[in-house]
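To the team - zinc ion complex, inputs and output below.
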Amino acid sequence: MAQWIQLYKTFSAYGAAVSQRSSGEPQTGPHGAKAIIVRSMTQGLDDIPHTDSLRYKAGVKALPAMAISTKDANLLSQLLKDQADLRIYMENYAEMLPETQSYNVIGQLNGTFLPNEYIAVGGHLDSWDVGEGAHDDGSGYLQGIEVLKIFKLLNIKPKRTIRAVMWMNEENGGKGGKAYADMSKGRNEYHIAAIKSDRGGFVPRGFTSIGSAKLKQQLLKWKTLFEPYGLHDFDR
Ligand SMILES: [Zn+2]
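Output:
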């Protein structure tokens, strides 16, 4: 099977391709490297670079690195073919600004039977610089709001409290999520699930989980409840 066929799962190809930009570690080849320029990690052919983050690993020589848009990458590729002695000048104004106050936004439908047990569902409010954030992650948190809306429209009273959460500042270290976890712990709340939609606003096909093996087993127990709705991928 061709390798690319195995990479249909969201982020498999992205994860494999992004390391040069995110770690500042070039595959230098025989000539060494002075800097890193990568094609934006996106399928879209446009003028908007997907810049994302760069963190130098310990011991790695810190080379300047930047992502350019897919259109610019095609142009650069062509220019390199046409001019073997092409020289490139890079100038980068990226900087870390001081932190500022921001907020998670939460709406909830109170549980009728176990109100202190929670299911949180949502996405993150912030987006990455030049992008508009429609899929990362506007559509994700809208899906959370839709959960509450549908329950209300159908007049379903949930047993447990359901929260639509718009987590703030996910892109810079998941800080809104951590603040939410601290708040929840401080209030002695018990969450049976916290679900984030953050892989594009399309039809959900399943879940990934970063919890313990025990929690993963719990998730798998619910698989049959989801399958009639087309959610089948619980394997990661
Ligand atoms: Zn996201």
